Amino acid sequence: EQVPTCITLALLTSQLRPDANHKEDMVFLRDVFSERSLSYLMKIHEKLRQYEKQSPTPVLHSASTLAEDVAEELQSGPMSAEEKELLHLLTSPHLKAVLSVHDTVAQKNFDPVLPPLPDDFEDELDEESVKIVRLVKNKEPLGATIRRDESTGAVIVARIMKGGAADRSGLVHVGDELREVNGSSVMHKRPDEISQLLSQSQGSITLKIIPAIREEDKLKESKVYMRAMFDYTPLEDKATPCQEAGLPFKRGDILQVVSQDDQTWWQAKRVGDCNLRAGLIPSKQFQESPPSSLLVSSAHSLSPCLPPTEDCDCEGYFNGQYIAGLRRSFRLSRKDRRDSSGEASVSDQNDTEFLTYEEVTRYQQKPNERPRLVVLIGSLGARINELKQKVIAENPHRYAVAVPHTTRPKKSHEKEGVEYHFVTKQVFDADAQNNKFIEYGEYKENLYGTSIEAIRSVQAKNKMCLVDVQPEALKALRTAEFKPYVIFVKPRIPESHRRRSAEEDLQEMRLSAQQTDQQYGHLVDRVLIKEDTASACAELRSILERLERETFWVPVSWVKA
After folding, report:
1. Domains of the chain, with CATH numbers?
2. What is the mean pLDDT of each run of 10 residues along the chain (561 residues)?
3. How far is it, in rounded angstroms, from Cα 62 to Cα 219?
4. Residues 283, 226 contacting (CB under 8 angstroms)
5. What is the phi/psi pair of residue 547, to 5°?
6. FRET pair for 391, CA 20 to 30 Å: which of 89, 93, 196, 514?
7. Which residues form the PDZ domain (predicted)?
C-alpha cells in the first residue's frame, strides 16, 4: 500500500542534513517542507486521492433546482417547526452556493467558455505577422503594461510583469504590437481606455497581436534578494512608468528581484507575500544616479528626458486602491522625485549616504562556527547596560561582555582582565591610533574603550558576546567576521506628562529615538520596546536563543567573504 504523501513529506524532512557544499539548498528545502501551508496541501491531496478511489457519482445534476422546488412546496401551506427549519436551510445563501457548485461539477461545465473565433481568422493566419492569442485570466490583471509609439501611433507591449497571466502564458512578449482586444480595434483608443478594456475582460480574453520582429528570450527568474533601505510609495513617484504596476515597500522589507532586464525599473516581489505577480521598483542604479545621468534616450519619447508613458490593467493591484488619471509621462527633476518619495534631495546628497538596497542571503549559524556578535544600541532613557548585564548574569556560560580597557588605576577588589584591562595612557593612545578600539572616550579624565580583540576573546570561548555601543560604531562592526545582529532598544514613552519638566524629558527621549532611527534604522535587525526591565530581559533572551538556531537574512558579503 502506498505511503500517504504527508507522511512521506515528514520522513523526507527528517532526512535533510546540513551539507557543507549545499547548505543553502538544504536550508531552503527544509523551510519549504516545513511550511504549514504545504502540509495542509498534502492532506487535501490525500483526501482527493481517497475520493478518486471511491469513484463517487452524483445522484442528480440539478440539486439547486430540486432545492428550489422543495422550498416552493414548503411555502404552499402551513409549516411545522421542522419544515420551517428545513426552509430556512434551503434558502440560506451558503447552502444555495454549495448546491450550485455541486451542479457545476456534476454537469462538468466549469471549463471557461471561449468566444467564437473571428470570421476572418483563417485569412489572418495566412499573414505571418499576425497572431491570435487567447488567454484565460479570470479577475486577475493581465500583468502587462502598454504604451503608445509616438512616431507610428502603434500600441506596444512595454513590459511583461513576472508571474502575471501574460507571463505565465508565454504568448505575449515585450515589443509586440496590440491591434485588437476581444475583436475591438485599439488603433484609435488611448492607452488608458485600452487598459480599462483589458481589465473588464473576465474569464477569457482574445488579443490580435503583431509579434515583435525579434522576440526576447524569456529570462529565468532571478534568485537575487535585496533588503530595502528606504520606503517606497509608487503612487507618490512621478518618475515611475506605471504607478498601478508599482510595488510599495517599507525599509527593511526583503525583496526578491526577479528581473533586472530594465536597468531603470526592476521587477520584484516581497518575500512572504502570497501574490505571485511581480511589481516595478526603482533600480539601485536609478536610485543612486545623479540627475544628469537620468536622461533616458528613447526613439519614442516626447523629448530626450521624457520616457514613454505605460498603462496597465492593474487597478491598484498592489496598492489596494485605484487612482485614475494619476499616470505621468514626465520624469521631473531628481530633486522632485526624491522629495515625493520621502528620500533625501539632491542638495544634501553629498552630506549623507543615500541608501538604496543591500543584497542579502539566508544564513544560519553552524554548530562549529563562532556565535554572532550581538550589538545593542539605544536611544536616551533605554538603559541598555542594565539590560545586558542582567541577561549575562542569568546565563554566564552562554553570554559574556567584552572586557573594556581603561587608564584609571585598579581598585583593590578588581582583577586584571575581569572588570577591565588596565593599561597606561601611552598604550591606550597607541592602540587607539592603530584602530584597535571599536569605540573609546574619556570620563573623569580617564580613558575607556572596547577593543576588537576583547570581542574575539569572548567568541573564542564559544560564548555569545553582547556589546552596547554608540550607533556610530556599527559601520566598523558590520563585517563578515562578526556578522552582528543589531538590536535597537527604545524605552516606552508615554504620550504626555503633567509636570512640565517631565514632559521636556520625554520630548528629548522621543527626539533621541527619532534621530537614531533616521540615521541608523537601516542597520537594525530588531527593535525592542522596553516597557520594564523584566519583560525586556525576557524578550532579549528569546531573541538570543532564536539567533543560535534559526535562519536570518544577512548581507551576501558576510557569507561569500
Report:
1. 5-54 (no CATH), 63-107 (no CATH), 121-210 (2.30.42.10), 224-360 (2.30.30.40), 365-398+463-553 (3.40.50.300), 403-459 (3.30.63.10)
2. 63 67 72 79 84 80 89 87 90 91 80 60 55 78 83 85 85 88 84 79 81 55 85 87 87 92 89 83 82 37 42 57 29 36 39 76 88 92 89 94 94 89 94 93 92 94 94 92 94 68 80 91 92 91 92 91 55
3. 48
4. no
5. -60, -30
6. 514
7. 132-213
